[in-house]
Each structure stands twice: as structure tokens, then as C-alpha cells.
Amino acid sequence: ILSGLLIVPLNALLQHRGHILVGAGHSIAVQNFSENLGILILSGAYTMMVKFNLPVNGIVFIFGFFVLLAMTVASQYYAKSN
Description:
This protein is mainly α and 82 residues long. The protein has three helices and no strands.
């Protein structure tokens, strides 16, 4: 329920800005493609970690580090572009 408080406004913003830039349908298609590609990649990474018998704590740490790294790169890219 609480995730909807974040996702719904973000999707509304995406549709609004996408309509102005390239059309709402194209922006939603790109969003869906990106989300599905991320799901496939991260599911594959999780499957490989389970196959190599990594402990659950290790898997959570690796995914947490990946999120930290991705957010750091994204924030630095955003700071340089503005």
C-alpha cells in the first residue's frame, strides 16, 4: 500500500512529461521495457547467487550494495547535468 504513494505520482509525472516530450505511449513503453529488463537481469543474478549457495545475508548485502552504487552514480550524473 505504501509503495503506491511513491509509484502512482511517479507514473503520473512520467506520463505528463512523456506526453510533452515524446508522447505518453512511448514513455510508458520505455518505462515498461526498462522495468522488465531490470527484473530479468536481477532475477538472473539472484538465481546465480542461489546456485552458488551464497547465504541469504550475503545476497541481501550484494543487492543493497548494488542499489547504493546505482543511486550514487545516478545522483552524480544528475548533479553534473544541472
